[in-house]
Amino acid sequence: MRFSVLASGSTGNAIYVATDRVSVLIDVGITGKQAEAALREIGVNPGELDAILVTHEHVDHIKGIGVMARRYNLPIYANQKTWAELDKQIGTIREDQKRFFEVGEKKELEDLGIESFGISHDAAEPMGFCFYHGRKKLSVATDLGYVSDRIKQTIRDADAYIFEANHDVEMLRMSQYPWSIKQRILSDVGHLSNEAAGEALGDFLGGRAERVYLAHLSKENNMIDLARLTVKSVLEERGLKVGDDVHLRETYPDRPTRLEVL
């Protein structure tokens, strides 16, 4: 199984996951042109894509979905409540391209197993995904107001995680955001702080040299060095040695991570 975080952050999110038989995008929250450029940067021909999976309907996750689906004749998988919102935002999609993938459902696309799970976020019915190929597992969980025990149980035992570390709490509190926005981000249907990310990861990481990609960083209220330092500190308080037991990786709002193989 191969994967790359094509873009991640408050300005747009997209992830590529593939095996030798199938390749999918998780969200396209960047323009179609940006998605194509990111794919080509990691050596992937956009014309070889097979499907798009949707976590939820916020614009930083769906901006380019309609363009990519129409241009490359791709089916779009989302749950019914999310589809009700997508139809208003992504333009005309043929009925045969609309596929349903409900919360808690498991599907197989060729040799790629996919499991969806519900997350706490202020969207219609937001989801995360776990991907399985052979003995390998990749867990994708962002836009988390908080991480429930059920989510921890679902995503644990992965070889790699794409996991939210959205904001530094003090930076957010001191920011120019209206108080209503700050309250939303800090709420149980908002986003996960750096410290909360570290605490959640510490609850389920096994110390098997897992790769953790710190994702969905706020452009205004976080910095990658701060996110890494905070998560590292919390994990090491839990007895996990960063660099040996777990490897922290960066994601970027404007360029893809290198294509990783599990």
Automatic annotation (TrEMBL):
Catalysed reactions, semicolon-separated: 3',5'-cyclic CMP + H2O = CMP + H(+); 3',5'-cyclic UMP + H2O = UMP + H(+)
Purpose of the protein: Counteracts the endogenous Pycsar antiviral defense system. Phosphodiesterase that enables metal-dependent hydrolysis of host cyclic nucleotide Pycsar defense signals such as cCMP and cUMP.
InterPro entries in alphabetical order: Metallo-B-lactamas (IPR001279), RibonucZ/Hydroxyglut_hydro (IPR036866), WalJ/YycJ (IPR058121), WalJ/YycJ-like (IPR052533)
All residue ranges annotated as the Metallo-beta-lactamase domain in the record: 11-189
Native source organism of the sequence: Brevibacillus thermoruber
SMART domains from the UniProt entry: Lactamase_B
The protein's name in its UniProt record: MBL fold metallo-hydrolase
